[in-house]
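Catalogue entry: protein
Contents: sequence, fold tokens
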Amino acid sequence: MEVDVLNMEGQKVDTLDLPSAIFEAPINVDLMHQAFVRQMANARLGTHKTKGRSEVSGGGRKPWRQKGTGRARQGSIRAAHWVGGGKVHTPKPRDYSLSMPRKMRQAAIRSALSVKAAEKSVVVLDVLALPEIKTRLMAQSLDRLVGEASALILIPEKNDDYQRVVLSTNNLPDAKTLLVNYLNIRDLLSYDRLILPVPALPVLETLLASEKAAGI
């Protein structure tokens, strides 16, 4: 798949063939959905907790005698129907995490990348760099590259040049920077455009292209 290579000004400077193993892989919607559900489930803390009847304070004795008062019989003021009583059938701490084989996770990411490529939503940059840390400069570049669409910007590695891009993007609500090694299905599906610097392609190929490298 041949795509245009742009600079930060949005001008075409070259063309590039995207790896077909990554950007022309079979599209499996069910697999992408399963990977997305797994990632969202694994993000849940599961620390919710409410107190049951045996855990709330008070209620150690019968509030009044069983008979003769004219009132309904009660055994404890901490029963569920009393104000301040214990709760019934409410959440308890639990683990929401789901498992999914790495082969399937990698295939889901390749599938999502193929969808982006088929929709012409992959923007390839020759160089991703800014002269200084300035949100305005990054906003202007994104406006030229993707217009009003939201964008996921892949960062090949951690260094000072890319750090300026990261810091300049942090305050933009419709853009996010992400190290290539941390590419995931949720971010791929959450943003309209994928901004891919040319130096990030080898890293992406190492992670996803060959079955041996991807653990598939």
The longest strand covers residues 12-17. The first helix runs from residue 20 to 23. The helical segments are 20-23, 29-42, 102-118, 135-146, 160-169, 185-190, 200-208.
